[in-house]
């Protein structure tokens, strides 16, 4: 069954189609939610809220682009809404707690396992993590990020730069500890 047919069956209230859509995308979307939240419980809350939005707004899916991409955008926006509600992003706008570090250690990065990197991303301050995910992983521009988060484009760039510096420091600490 193609994506448009699946979406239409879900809109009609077909519970088997709804279950199929959820089972098809929930594992990938959980990964998206985990990147924006601090722990598994918060990610599950965002995932659940996101799928509620998916099913209530599915009639707005036009069939242009992939259904997965449409669902992913809803999950990202739901995660951002979660951060706004808890007001965690604004608390991290003052970004002076991590110094800049320009040089990069590509050997350290290449030896990191994906799980280690995701753990480091989850441990980032909320502002760093949010901008890093939106820019580096989701592909938003700094202008779009600023509009989404209600901050300036320069704040987005600064948060991203400091997020990278934060990751470099943490990666080096991991390498020294191994």
Characterization of this structure:
It is a single chain. This protein is mainly α and 178 residues long. It folds into two domains: 3-86, RNA polymerase sigma factor, region 2, helix turn helix motif (Rna Polymerase Sigma Factor, Chain: A, Orthogonal Bundle), CATH 1.10.1740; 89-177, Arc Repressor Mutant, subunit A (Orthogonal Bundle), CATH 1.10.10. It is 75% helix and 0% strand. It is built from ten helices and no strands. It has helices spanning 3-11, 15-36, 40-57, 67-85, 88-91, 106-111, 114-123, 126-137, 142-149, 153-177. Helix 9 (142-149) crosses helix 10 (153-177). The longest helix has 25 residues, at 153-177. The N and C termini lie far apart (48 Å). The relative contact order is 0.11. Mean pLDDT is 84; it is low at 90-109.
* CATH architecture verdict of the largest domain: Orthogonal Bundle
Indicate the structural class: mainly alpha
Distance between the termini: 48 Å
Instruction: Specify the CATH class of the largest domain.
Output: Mainly Alpha
Uncertain stretches of 5 or more adjacent residues: 90-109
CATH superfamily of the largest domain: Winged helix-like DNA-binding domain superfamily/Winged helix DNA-binding domain
Discrete helix count: 10
Helix content: over 70%
The description of the largest β-sheet is: none
Supply the number of structural domains: 2
Order of helices and strands: HHHHHHHHHH
- The counted number of beta strands is 0
Overall geometry = globular
Radius of gyration: 18 Å
Mean pLDDT across every amino acid position: 84
Assess the beta-strand content as a share of residues.
under 5%
CATH topology of the largest domain: Arc Repressor Mutant, subunit A
